[in-house]
Amino acid sequence: MEPAVTFIICSYNRAHYLDDTLQSLLQNLSDPDFELLVIDNNSEDETPEIVKKYQHSINKDGKPVRYIKETAQGLSHARNRGIKEAKAPNIVFLDDDIRASESLIPAWISFFENHPNAIAAGGKIHVQFDAPRPSWMSHFLLPLLGHHDLGSSPKKYPKTKYPFGGNMGFKKSIFEDIEPFNPNLGRKGESLNAGEEKELFRRIRERNNDIFYIPDAFLYHRVGPNRLTKGYIKNQALGLGQSMRLRLREAPALQKSLNWLSETAKFFGSFPLALGYLLIFQPSKAAMLFQFRKWVWEGYLKN
Fold this sequence. Notes:
This protein is α/β, with parallel strands linked by helices. Helix content is about 40%, strand content about 20%. The protein has helices spanning about 15-25, 45-60, 75-85, 105-115, 195-205, 230-250, 255-280, 285-300; strands spanning about 5-10, 35-40, 65-70, 90-95, 100, 120-130, 155, 165-170, 210-225.
């Protein structure tokens, strides 16, 4: 019998995290109506061995773990390969550095079972710091590290919001009608470009499809010390700006104007947030808000 949901994990040189991710997904679960599909995007570490360990120990219990290597470098290429290889009619993308709650897999399976016409959805993500949180890391920068929480009630996403890539699901058949992830966007190796998820969700929404938020599809996104540096945040901000430029390159003038207005609003919106941090004597958080917005603009304007 084919699984109801394929959970796709695209991985690149994160064997130590992937080990914990697979363990958290497969422990204390009795429902076999899913498969895990690991897409190895040219990892040079022990990723294949980690997957084999779980294949040998878990397949006998009816929870298959499959491994496929995608040689075209880039997260979008890896995700598109996952779409092609998934056996289930519903697919969910998870990051390779997460810890799943006990409700994550049951919530996704239940959602697709109870919403047979749903096209796309997203789940809740909280950040788990594996190293001390820097003094300059404010709550408003946590989405850069994967934090995504629209509350405890199921709902449709507002027009201005979309699911995050570390916990998003789709009806597989939608990709028979629309192109999947844009390979010109998204991460490639060590590059921190982004934007491929938002671009895809915009195309889905243009077809008048609702996007659903599933709070019980909950996981923790682990953040190690390498991501808690100003250099990492800078590279991520530059990547966001560069991806925004690529995404808007052929967009209509109206969409470009609306994007500029949105970015300008975000810049001026940083002032009251920064004032709040200054009033509680946390100037480093205030300064980083403006520094981040400056880096995004630099990425957008970079040749």
